[in-house]
Amino acid sequence: MRVCVYCASSKHLDQKYLALGYEFGRELALRGHALVYGGYNEGIMGSVAAGVSENGGEIIAVVPRLFDSEEMTYPGCSEVIHTDTISDRKSMMEKLADGFAVLPGGIGTYDEFFGTLCLKMLGELNKPIVILNAFGYYEPLREMLEKNRSEGFLDYGSDDAVEYLADCGAVFDALERQRNEEHR
Description:
single chain, alpha/beta
């Protein structure tokens, strides 16, 4: 399975997030999945890529020309796909992926997640989305989306379209289970 990962690229993160990214990448590689991601070599993105690379996994980086430089792209990528814009990058990652994992991140991660969630809720994307809610990072997001549902802004809760799980193994179990259900 090709797993698209949305996460932070910031260099200014607590070490626990970088360790989480590495653990996630390691688990992805050991389970025989391929990583699809934005290609950056810093922050959680770089840690995920290192975890995949150092454990023999495949890395597909989708890099917009804005960030297209050897210094910014993880050096161990199996394949680098260049796009003209950030929007093209998101579309390409959605196309390449069989499932999506959302790790802690900021505005770019939210943008990618909400775009993918919107497509799923509209029925235009039938691929699993799982949030790695380690350290309770995404509890405020979960609460906001539940408030949206309870006040009528969403027809159904985001929990119907997304699973929130606290550890890497559970995320992969959910992605694999959902992917197998889709192929029945």
